Structures are given as C-alpha cells and as structure tokens.
Amino acid sequence: MRLYNLQGKLLKSVKTKSGNEPQDIAVTESGDLIYTDYINRTVNKIKNKKIQEVIKLLDWIPRCVCSTFLDDLLVIMDNENDSRTKIVRYSGSTEKQSIEFDDKGEPLYSSGPFVKYISENRNQDICVADWGARAVVVVDQAGKRRFRYTGNPSTSKRGKQSTTRRSFEPCGIATDSQSLILIADRKNHHVHILHQDGHFLRYIDNGDLHSPMGLCLDSKDNLFVAEWGTGKIKNIQYYK
C-alpha cells in the first residue's frame, strides 16, 4: 500500500502484516488506514505505523470496506462457498448490524466471487456497486432497500463518434459533499453521477477515461479515478 501526494510523489509505503495482497483499503475519519486481508480473513488498522488486527472472521471472507462518518466500519463479506453476500457494520471489533435480505426475504446482493464496492452517503445510505448483478444497490441506515440502479439506457459520445452503451459494469463507487453518488463504469469508460434518490444526472465522459475502476473523493470533492490496465490515477474536476 502506497501513499502519494497530489504531484505523484511517493511519500510512504507499507506492507500488510501477513504479506498478503490487500483486497481493499479505506481511511477513517481520524485518518487511520484500514485494509482487508481476504486470505487471513481479517480487517486491519494501521495507526502510528503499527498494524492492529481489528476483526477476525471464521466462516466469512472480508472483501471491500468503508469507514462511516460515525467511525463505524462497513464490511462486505462472502461465505466460504460464495453462495451468500452480506454487509456487516462494526464499532471497533463489535458487530452492530448485518444487512443481507430485503423485506421479501430475497438477497439484496449477488452471490459468487464478484467484487462489490461500498460507500456511505451523507444521508447515511449505504451504496454498493454490485458488479455481479450489474447494478448499484442502495439501502438506508436500517438496511431497508431504497433503490436499485442498473444504468442509464442512452448513448454516450466519445469524441465525435456516438456509441451505444455496453452492458453496465459498476466498479468503484463514491459519494460527495452534496450526497451525489458517483459510479465507475469500466466497460463504457465513464463515470455515472446519480442524485441521492437514484435519479441519473449525467456522465463524466471527457474522452480521456480508460476503463475506470476505482474512485475516491477528497474533502474538497476532487475526484480521483484509478484506471484498469493503464496503472494511472487521474484527478478530475467534475463540478460545472
């Protein structure tokens, strides 16, 4: 895991405690780094250059993680045979909430070894980009489903050529200071912007994005996009 400044200079680098590749990383409100180790089935915190194991799972595998505005952790996890996926909220090492099914008892999220990214919105909604379902699933703080977004059935323009959208492939997801939801769409080479209630607003599609995969926003709503395949991270000003 590496920390760079805005000019691309490497400031520091740290290895996981186990030596395994981290599945996902997040930064807490207090500035600590969180990472998941899916091989050791742990969620870990790096604080003052020391690595602390925060959560140890037995029958579940931690995948992606985010830190909430109240400093809880939301962890997406799969069971051992990839037949179930759920979100668990932790306060420290204590489980506070589990989110897996809707009001009809149906799974909220796809099963299988598909990456699912997670972000908490300002209104405390929990937003998940479910690559396996080709959908973004948003639930409220209590875990009740609010909406499901499966892409905008329109065309996009890359340069002078108009191209029909390919299948929606949501990857990274982030929310900004205005509670807008931003979703990386890898196959279509752009980022979707949604209202907090799920209405499509517009694309970020400046012709310079190639397979956007990871997203994050800083406190000033600067958008950072990690591209699949190129190894590049791009800083985009998206407010008009």
UniProtKB/TrEMBL annotation:
<dbReference type="InterPro" id="IPR011042">
    <property type="entry name" value="6-blade_b-propeller_TolB-like"/>
</dbReference>
<dbReference type="InterPro" id="IPR050952">
    <property type="entry name" value="TRIM-NHL_E3_ligases"/>
</dbReference>
<protein>
    <submittedName>
        <fullName>Tripartite motif-containing protein 2</fullName>
    </submittedName>
</protein>
<dbReference type="GO" id="GO:0043161">
    <property type="term" value="P:proteasome-mediated ubiquitin-dependent protein catabolic process"/>
</dbReference>
<dbReference type="GO" id="GO:0008270">
    <property type="term" value="F:zinc ion binding"/>
</dbReference>
<dbReference type="GO" id="GO:0061630">
    <property type="term" value="F:ubiquitin protein ligase activity"/>
</dbReference>
<dbReference type="GO" id="GO:0000209">
    <property type="term" value="P:protein polyubiquitination"/>
</dbReference>
